[in-house]
Amino acid sequence: MTAGAVRLRRGARVWLDDVVQTVTGVTDGGVRLRSETGSWTVIGVGDLLADPSFRLYEDDDEQRTDGEPGRRRLRPDAAAMLDGLSDKQQEELLRAQEHFLELTTGYRSGDPDDVLPGEPRPGYDPDLPLTQRVHHKADELGYSRAQMWRRLQRWREQGLWGLVDQRSLRPSDPLAGVDPRLIDAILAQHYAAEEDDSTGSLNRLRRRVERRLADVHGPGVAKVPSQTSFNRYVSLLLPGRYTTGAATTRASVANRPDAHYRPIIAGRPGELVMIDTSWLDVRAYDPDTDTVVSVDLTIAIDVCTRSLLGWRLVPKGTKGVDAGMVIADSMLPEPMRPGWPESLRHKMLRLPCEPLLSLDERFAAAAARPVIFPETIVIDHGKAFTSQAVKNVCRRYGITIQDARKYRPVDKPQVEAAFKTIRTQLSEHIAGYKGNHVVHRGRDVDAVARWTIVELEEFFAEYVVAVYQRRHHKGLVLPGFPEINLSPNDAYRLAVHRCGYIAAPRDANLFLELLPIHWTGITNHRVQKDYLHYSAPVLRSHNGAPSPYLHAKGKWPIRYDPRDVTQTYFHDPYTGGWHTLRWSHALRGLEPFTDVTLRQVKREMRERGRDPRDQEAVLDALLDLQNRTDAAEASTARDRRARARDAERARAAARDRARTELIDSAADAPLKDSVLRAVPSLPEGEDEGKFAIDFDALPSYEVWGGRPDEDAPA
């Protein structure tokens, strides 16, 4: 073969019959090969070398053509090597090339139209034989004629690189001469064990590599170098892998995909919405229980405009109903808060449909946060996002659910980047900031935490509307003008001009429709859920009657909120109204009573040998539990944190319930006065002309550049 000698050894790879074959053994009479598909072939050495399809596997770094085992062949880029020369060396190369241009063409420039005085010189006339010109140039430069011919050949084949003295510029391989079996053992040990194991020293890694070599090749066959050389080889083979660094960092690096990152883009608002939950790096304080709790932040971000559409701050342990409410919030306007400036109102978005939106009470008093109807949401495999509540939201409005791959945060990079932005712009500036890792945590974070979850929600809402949505984003640019950065509000306004606006849902009872359903019968003017009895006057007319839902076999659908089990919700199919069903033993002061508290009450009742179906017993156990947790001298820190979490979940449930049009819900009457609800649609044919839209009067699409109107006054 023209490439030189080939050393066939065990583990080498070659091409044969257009299939990559691995040499598994070499004998005096033949070579044993194994293909990538697992088939075996035995062929004579002569037949193998004579086969026209036989060639080296060029991508194999271990393959050598100079007969030296264990040395890797470098293929340097000649242009890159030339670019690394100094200015003086490059000038010398150009002068040397002028001699060869004169030798071959008769002109130092190589162009007959660019002639220097006195050219062509005697001895270099193009009409003279090349041999005579080469001999003349050799005498001029002081080379032998054989040297001159060799330099001319290298210059013709390699250009300028052929004129360089490559002995002084030979590229170096820091792993040259290293036994390839050692390289394989180091890589195999890291990826097979060290990535997931506890962090150890390089001394431990060397011992394990030595044992691996002995198991694979036999004791003493493959030598392990000294500790210093071994450490140098590890740093060269595993750069940035944190083999002896922090285990969390090593696992994060190992989780990166091998392929390059590809941008995830969307062409219109709502085409792709990402939703995820992370901890808010701030501890919240609960004054009622005098305790500090961790907070989870769930957000929904629109990929097209990078807008934060919805968010929920809840105590650690996000539930499915919280994730479902975030999706619902993204389709509803965000109300203005007292004290916010007028520049934060929704009308400042300057949408083309603002005259129509201003007729809706919700938008008239809404903040400048985009309202987008999601088409597809991207979720991870968290329990909250695979819950029935999220499925109910998506099924109700025809939203497609797209799962991200497990342990692949790059499938939803926009939401991950948003969490980092929130941490650097908001979280670390709030009292009670605990850092994003335990190594960044202060000495006593809980002592300085003083903001409740309600107050943190207000801070976060103000940050989103006043800062995040108006901050220019380096990932948002004007199409055709990559140097012009946009804010999420700017991107939303332009996208609405380009793609149109989809109206948000106007149903005030959206919250109720998204709650989980429990099917049960109506007996004795009441319904039962988890051994708790709920009743209301509306059930009297349906007592014992089968439901109109044929598939339910006579049972009625009852909606329940896990955050507050003191009441459930009943939809009357004959009147279309929603009714509150109160727990028969619910009294004032018993809230919060969540599903978590209910499970704890039942567990304590079983431990005491009492029947959880007894309503009086459940009430007594609940009062006893609340009395014990309410007493500061008897409750533990864990009990106080659990009570604070339940109280916060019950407060969130009451806030969502206040936006509805429930009947018999006197408990939420004070909240209903401060909640904006959708303006009902007008009956058909009534005042249609009053609300007719003149599309010619709508603001036009903003245009940059272009030719000025010739008729316009100067």
Descriptors for this entry?
SH3 type barrels; 5 domains; five-stranded antiparallel beta sheet; 33% helix; elongated; disordered C terminus
Description:
It contains 22 helices and 19 strands. The chain has 5 domains: 1-74, SH3 type barrels; 78-163, no CATH class; 180-254; 273-499, Ribonuclease H-like superfamily/Ribonuclease H (Nucleotidyltransferase, domain 5); 510-672, no CATH class. A hairpin with a 4-residue loop joins strand 2 (19-26) and strand 3 (31-35). With 714 residues, the protein is an alpha+beta fold. Helix 4 packs across helix 5 (145-158). 33% of the residues lie in helices and 15% in strands. Strands 13, 14, 15, 16, 17, 18 and 19 form a 7-stranded mixed beta sheet that branches. A 5-stranded antiparallel beta sheet has the order 4-3-2-1-5. The protein has a 5-stranded mixed beta sheet with strand order 8-7-6-9-10, sandwiched between helices. The radius of gyration is 38 Å and the shape is elongated.
Averaged pLDDT:
79
Structural class by helix and strand composition: alpha+beta
Estimated radius of gyration: 38 Å
The CATH architecture of the largest domain would be: 2-Layer Sandwich
From the spread of the alpha carbons, the general shape counts as elongated
